[in-house]
Design brief:
By secondary structure, this protein is an alpha/beta fold. Helices cover 36% and strands 15% of the residues. The strands form three sheets. The protein has a seven-stranded mixed beta sheet with strand order 2-8-7-6-5-3-4, sandwiched between helices. The longest helix has 16 residues, at 247-262. The two termini are 36 Å apart.
Length: 338
Amino acid sequence: MIFGHGDDSYRYGDKVKMDFSSNLPRFADISAVKAHLAANLDVIGKYPEPEARELEAMIAEKLAIGANSVMVTAGATEAIYLVAQLYRGWASVIPQPTFNEYADACKMHGHIVSYYDNDDMEMLPEQRIYWLCNPNNPTGNVMLKPLMSHIIREHRQWVFVVDQSYEDYTLKEVLQPCEMQDCHNLILIHSMTKKYCIPGLRLGYITASPIIIDRLRLLRQPWTVNSLAIEAGKFLTANHVRVIPDKRAYIEEAARLHDELNATKGLMLMDSDANFMLAYIDRHSARRLKQWLLDNYGILIRDASNFHGLDNRCFRVSAQTPRENNILIAALREYTKG
């Protein structure tokens, strides 16, 4: 794991008053799951299932697929590393910029890593994996669903890993497991951590063909998902909990934040279809901007300079409440004027 993942608020203690650094809305209402866990703390007194089969069955029923096509993991990160281990020694194509963990996992397991350079593509072996983040982190852009479906079906000789951790933070359509069951070269990664804003519990899952799921199960350690995470997952899935009451209003607010920042002199933003966005600041470094915002406003942003292919002017923010977004806009305009 690289140093500098999104939410590094633990480094600053109570200095952080407004956190735009991770891709989760801080105003999400997680009171229901907190109350449920508080009432069920006895689960920590016994071992969880070695594999979260009951939760997998619940997720499968909700997705209208077989339970043998679902594997619950300790967040999307465990899923990424398990997939990289399964295809050890293959070639991995990772278009940039994107989440660095794909490359880290692939390098750990002896992959030939290509960052989608045209000079590389002709030399890569046919045993090849394409890693796609959709919506993409850090840009927030979403690939068209029909295009992705076509590419995956037209290139069945390659494996496609599509990380849809942020699928609940866009209004664009993404791939649905029930629609892709004929694609045995597709692995979808999902994040309950992101969907329900519970990053401390580390909970995700993979959907893929039963053959791939069976092979992944042989690689994992038992009890990687703890009792509290499983209990939370079952409660959230069974009760259809919505931690963001109005997703459309939230994404529209994110679009407003994007447009306001993009209209700020000295800033340039990439297009985004999600609740987070990648920005460039002219003639300044993201590191200095991050420190200035923290010192003067208690605002934490994500220094994105350690994403492959990005330089020290890049930073990422996620939309929060309209009031907090307005404070961020004003602070950034003050900084760029200075």
